[in-house]
Design a protein that fits this description.
3 helices; DUF4230; DUF4230 domain-containing protein; 186 residues; alpha+beta
């Protein structure tokens, strides 16, 4: 009984010392980030954003290799496409004023940007990707952005941008005192 008590006391002491050492000297990971931000360029912007399309895409992207099983990823992608007019392209000769009349030639509408919303997009499923998953997902996002660009150019976004430009600029010009106006796109 005395031997059992001694062994139990020694084991308890070793356990306590082990716990104390582990608690005191446990490797605690700390994160440290040092940033050195630098403004590289400042550009004047004159783009008037007039319409935003929210696009959803369900994409199954596969990589086929001869000796490995096909790797695939299924993504649900949300993207914003914005149509705009670059007012920085408007020159003095594009504006003609005759008393209470104004003639304004606007630049052609354009697609300002296509931006995938990564917070709203989701990787739904991956199969057989193993160590290639990050590359596969990256390829899928690039493919989606390219396809969205192609499809949105076929849509009526540029016509909607023209319509919205007229709807926004006419009240502004009326407020400036022009009762007669001619707005066109060059």
């Amino acid at each position: 009984m005395v031997k059992t008590f001694k062994v139990l006391a020694i084991l308890t002491a070793i356990g306590f010392i082990g716990w104390f050492v582990a608690a005191k000297f446990t490797l605690k990971t700390t994160v440290e980030s040092n940033h050195q931000l630098l403004v590289e360029r400042v550009e004047s912007m004159g783009k008037l954003e007039l319409v935003k399309y929210r696009i959803s895409d369900v994409l199954e992207h596969k990589n086929k290799t001869p000796f490995l099983p096909d790797a695939s990823v299924l993504l649900i992608i949300k993207a914003d496409v914005v149509g705009c007019i670059d007012l920085a392209k408007v020159k003095a000769e594009h504006i003609q004023v005759y008393g209470d009349s104004v003639v304004l030639k606007l630049p052609q509408p354009e697609i300002c940007y296509i931006k995938i919303d990564h917070k709203s997009s989701k990787v739904y499923d991956t199969k057989m990707a193993f160590f290639r998953e990050a590359d596969l997902v990256d390829e899928a996002y690039k493919s989606a952005e390219k396809q969205i660009d192609e499809e949105v150019r076929k849509s009526d976004i540029l016509q909607q941008t023209r319509t919205n430009a007229l709807n926004i600029l006419k009240p502004i010009l009326t407020g400036l005192g022009y009762s007669k106006m001619s707005l066109s796109f060059e």
